[in-house]
Amino acid sequence: MNMNIKKSALCMSVLCISLLLSACGAKNNNESVQEHAYPQSKQPIEEAGESSVPNADAKNNNDQGSTSGDEGKPTAQSESTEPSEQIDIVIDQSEKPMEGNSFDFGIKQVPKGYALTEMRWTSNTVTIVNSLQEAIEHGGNGEEGFYFSGNGQFSGFIYSDEMKGERGKATFVFTNDEGNEILSEKEITLK
Questions:
Q1: What does the domain layout of the chain look like in residue ranges?
Q2: What is the rounded distance in angstroms from the CA atom of residue 178 to the CA atom of residue 176?
Q3: pLDDT attached to residue 84
């Protein structure tokens, strides 16, 4: 009986040690996926008024097919777009436990047949244009500009300290198979 107790104790010790060793080899990830997927502040930023639009000349040139001057509303580049089609994009600038400056965005609704093809940041001092492929690359290498990472789970815009406080527009370009474009613009002050 004493021998059975020793064997049981030895087996339990081996199991505990192997469990401990397997846990030590695991990557420690302090951030949970849900913290990033569902940030604390789900409130979209406040929209800026018409009088505060930077690059007013660029705005007038870029809104060629627009029938509405409302910020955040999609503007159609072709007449085939139905008014019932909407683009819903949410911008989140809540504090994040990371170095650097960024805001997150989530695309909640896209008109049928359209896909995101380009993202732009336009302010008085800089214009940044990224294709979808460039944004995916930025998600892997952490470069400034728009990014997608985590198989599309995370999306945002990384910017330098010099850009803090800038007021500008984030423009999202959606294109269909015929090449028609719909733009969605959000006025933002970078925090």
A1: 43-189
A2: 5
A3: 34
Task: Please give the angle made by the CA atoms of 121, 144 and 170, to the nearest 5 degrees.
Answer: 15
Token pair 């406040």 is found at: 46
- 76-114 residues labelled b (16+ CB within 10 A) or e (exposed): bbeeebeeebebebebbbeebeeeebbbbbbeeebbeeb
Strands 115-123 and 101-109: unpaired
User: What sign has the CA pseudo-torsion 120, 124, 126, 127?
Assistant: positive
pLDDT level of residue 180 (50, 70, 90 thresholds): very high
62 sits in which H/E element: helix 56-62
CATH number for domain 43-189, candidates 3.40.228.10, 2.60.40.10, 3.40.50.720, 1.10.460.10: 2.60.40.10
- Supply φ then ψ for residue 10, to 5 degrees: -65, -45
Summarised one tens digit per residue, pLDDT across range 110-162 is 989 999 999 999 999 999 999 999 999 999 999 999 999 888 889 999 999 99
Structure tokens of 154?
């995370």
Q: Are 184 and 171 in contact (CB under 8 A)?
A: yes
